[in-house]
Amino acid sequence: MGGEEVAGCFSPSSAKSSFRELDDEFLQTQTRIWLGEVLQTRLDEHVNISGLLADGELLVFLVQVDDAKSYSEKRMLKGTK
């Protein structure tokens, strides 16, 4: 009876499992949107975000993008003084 439907109702463990799946899907979608904005590209919705983050290459690239943006902003601020 752990995750099975009983008389039209879901058991608590089934509800938790369903919530986790929806939560994971939501977080993957939001991460995909954020990465797309930061990288100025559109990520395929079938791309596994966990896999991209797990190998570390994407994180290194994000740091490089952030550093470049910070450098540009500092140069712009120096130019306005």
Q: Care to describe what's here?
A:
This protein is 72% helix and 5% strand. With 81 residues, the chain is mainly alpha-helical. It has a two-stranded antiparallel ribbon with strand order 1-2. A hairpin with a 2-residue loop joins strand 1 (5-6) and strand 2 (9-10). The N and C termini lie far apart (70 Å). The relative contact order is 0.07.
Q: Helix and strand succession?
A: EEHHH
Question: Into which percent range does the helicity of residues fall?
Answer: over 70%
Q: State the shape.
A: elongated
**How many strands, which pairing sense, and closed or not: the largest β-sheet?**
2 strands, antiparallel
Task: Return the average pLDDT rounded to an integer.
Answer: 78
Report the C-alpha radius of gyration, rounded: 21 Å
Strand content: under 5%
Low-confidence spans: pLDDT under 50, at least 5 residues? Answer: 1-6
Number of strands: 2
* Structural class by helix and strand composition: mainly alpha
Q: How far is the first residue's CA from the last residue's CA?
A: 70 Å
| Strand order in the largest sheet | 1-2
Question: DSSP helix count?
Answer: 3
Secondary structure blueprint with pairings:
Layout: E1 5-6, E2 9-10, H1 12-39, H2 49-54, H3 57-80
Antiparallel strand pairs: 1-2
